[in-house]
Amino acid sequence: MMLDTLSKGQKAKIKKIRTDGKLLRRLLDMGFVMNSEIEVIREAPLFDPMELKIQNYYISIRKSEASLIEVKI
């Protein structure tokens, strides 16, 4: 299951990030590491971007970036 398919209020743990290079480094720097718990806080009116809570931080990412993050519920 990919992160972009979760809806408001759902929680999951990061299983794998399917990217490399600068985007991977940026996601890792923001706290998207293996087994971190993520909660979907809200989505923008047109569903992009989405706000997430990860490691007590609130982060907004694009759906295209969220579609690269594999999670398990």
Number of helices: 2
Q: What is the N-to-C succession of helices and strands?
A: EHEEEHE
Distance between the termini: 8 Å
Biggest sheet features: 5 strands, antiparallel
Q: List low-confidence stretches.
A: none
Give me the Rg, rounded: 11 Å
Tell me the overall shape: globular
In words, what does this structure look like?
The protein is of the alpha+beta class. It is built from 2 helices and 5 strands. A 5-stranded antiparallel sheet has the order 4-3-2-1-5. The mean pLDDT is 92. It holds the Pfam family FeoA. Keywords: Iron. InterPro entries: Fe-transptr_FeoA-like, FeoA, FeoA_core_dom, Transcriptional_repressor_C. This is Ferrous iron transport protein A.
